[in-house]
Amino acid sequence: MHKICSRRNERQIKKYPSVDQQHAAAVQIVKLFPQLSNTRVTPTAPDESFFFWRNGGKEKGAHTGMIFHRIRNVIKQLPAEKHKYNRGTMPVEESVSTELVARAQLLRVMLASASVAEHICDEMDRCFPVLKLLLKEKKPVNDILDMFPHLCSYEGLVIRQMFERLYPNRTEGLKIEDVFSRCLSYSPSRFSRITFEDA
After folding, report:
1. Which of 10, 11, 15, 46 is deepest in the core (most CB within 10 A)?
2. Which residues of the chain have pLDDT under 50?
3. What's the CA angle centered on 71, arms 148 and 97, to 5 degrees?
4. Confidence (pLDDT) at 181
């Protein structure tokens, strides 16, 4: 009886692919379609990085890529008993579509120039749910800028646009400059102590 239960548990654990299997799939995709090596996240990233990149190319941290995000979103839809690991009563995270993550990853490699400024602003607006999820997950600033480098583009235009999306019901007088100046006064905790009401 114990062996039967053990085998059943093993089958449940194998309901979704391991990290190694995800990485192998990404490598295989690029091997079958070599032209997809052009989708690599950065010039020095592995050819398969758009599809799966261990720790996002860092020593530690979350994996990145279309396959990883798709698997993560599928896992969130599985009943708790089919998860490899259960985290007790942790709140369920919002999920974003694989297509939206792919859109954000394509946007991140686009070079900012005057001719594509409007396009980048439009795409940042469409990818806002991804940014909102990163903020909700309290990702480090470097990780957020790695996914959305255009927050630093166009002399603050994009970050202002995202600020307005984050606080659509802000008071008429609330400006992003006021938030930044208050953050400086709270150094080193900065943004962690800013609230909508406080600003």
Report:
1. 46
2. 1-13, 88-93, 189-190, 193-194, 196-199
3. 50
4. 60
Q: Quick check: 98 and 51 in contact, CB under 8 A?
A: no
In a domain, 187, yes or no: yes
Output the six-digit token pair for 160.
């202002």
| Encoded tokens for 14 | 């194998």
Q: What tokens does 39 get?
A: 């989708």
| Cα–Cα distance for residue pair 124/9, rounded to 1 Å | 43
* Domain ranges, residue 54: 1-92
In a domain, 88, yes or no: yes
Query: Which of the listed residues 92, 110, 142 is the one where a domain comes to its end?
Result: 92
Domain final residue, candidates 92, 127, 143? 92
Q: Scanning the structure block, which residue is given the tokens 């391991």?
A: 18
> pTM score, two decimals?
0.46
Q: What is the pLDDT of residues 96-138, one digit of tens each?
A: 888 888 899 889 888 888 899 999 999 999 999 999 888 888 8
Alpha-carbon gap, residue 191 to 180, rounded angstroms: 8
